[in-house]
Design brief:
Layout: E1 10-14, H1 26-35, E2 40-43, H2 58-61, E3 68-69, E4 72-81, H3 93-96, E5 101-105, H4 117-128, E6 135-136, H5 148-158, E7 161-165, H6 177-189, E8 194-197, H7 210-218, H8 231-252
Parallel strand pairs: 1-2, 2-4, 4-5, 5-6, 6-7, 7-8
Antiparallel strand pairs: 3-4
Helix pairs in contact: 4-5
The structure holds zinc ion (ZN) (2 copies).
Length: 256
């Protein structure tokens, strides 16, 4: 398989105008995905910790949306902000549990202690232990340094995913390429499952991750580790997540 020529069937990280600084609507994103013969996208708006982000109850409101728009399965998710090294989030557990897919991210411009390597690592590890969180967003960001080996080890232990974000190949996060390569090679070495993501903020970006896919081919990344290459594989992961949450609820007597 030549990964450089593959468009994943599901894009796991997309934004709409509701994120406050993105430019397309959900309908426009779905139409763009349809043109590329994709089958699904995760709706992962920015949470309110980012200026202008969607309101904290957005996971509740998203339930009004149909599951399929213009032939594209829309998985209702969120990109929750990690607010500090005390592991605070800007979306409550009660709302996170309404989501089908949750990305937890540190956004360097709003994270003043971003240079603290050990504290960043510990915070990411804590996030991977949260049953509602599926994946860390753009943790390769070199302005938020952390221990990739530790992240991979914990993600593997918890059955979680790590994100490879196409914006680390673009001017959006300049200087990220060496860090992204190290992250990819660490995932490859330990056979860590990943999602490839556009982090689209405009409809032409949906599913459009050519530079990332080319890099993955160059680094001989195993295609079978990319969970969202096919909708079937992604939905198998979602069944895994459901089982995880049921198990957690049974253990704790509730999912809160
Ligand atoms: Zn982000
Ligand atoms: Zn994003």
């Amino acid at each position: 398989m030549h990964l450089s020529q593959v468009i994943p069937e599901v894009d796991t990280h997309t934004h709409t105008v509701l994120s406050g600084h993105a430019w397309s609507t959900l309908s426009e994103n779905c139409s763009a995905a349809k043109v590329l013969w994709m089958k699904g996208l995760c709706l992962t708006e920015h949470a309110p910790g980012i200026e202008g982000g969607a309101p904290s109850f957005i996971p509740h409101s998203q339930r009004m949306l149909p599951d399929v728009i213009d032939g594209i399965r829309v998985y209702k998710g969120i990109e929750v902000n990690i607010l500090d090294h005390q592991n605070h989030l800007d979306i409550s557990s009660q709302h996170l549990m309404l989501c089908e897919f949750v990305i937890a991210s540190i956004h360097s411009h709003m994270f003043s202690e971003r240079a603290m390597y050990n504290a960043n690592t510990d915070t990411y590890l804590h996030m991977l232990q949260n049953p509602h969180i599926d994946i860390l967003g753009h943790a390769d960001d070199p302005s938020v340094p952390c221990d990739f080996e530790a992240l991979v080890s914990e993600a593997c232990k918890q059955g979680k995913l790590l994100e490879l974000n196409n914006n680390s190949t673009t001017a959006h996060r300049p200087g990220s390429l060496p860090s992204l390569k190290r992250y990819i090679l660490c995932c490859k070495e330990h056979r860590q499952r990943v999602c490839v993501a556009s982090d689209a903020h405009f409809h032409t970006m949906v599913g459009n991750m050519g530079p990332l896919m080319t890099l993955l081919e160059e680094l001989e990344f195993p295609p079978e580790l990319i969970v969202n290459l096919t909708k079937e594989r992604f939905e198998a992961y979602l069944r895994e997540r459901s089982a995880r949450i049921v198990q957690f609820a049974a253990k704790s007597g509730g999912v809160n």
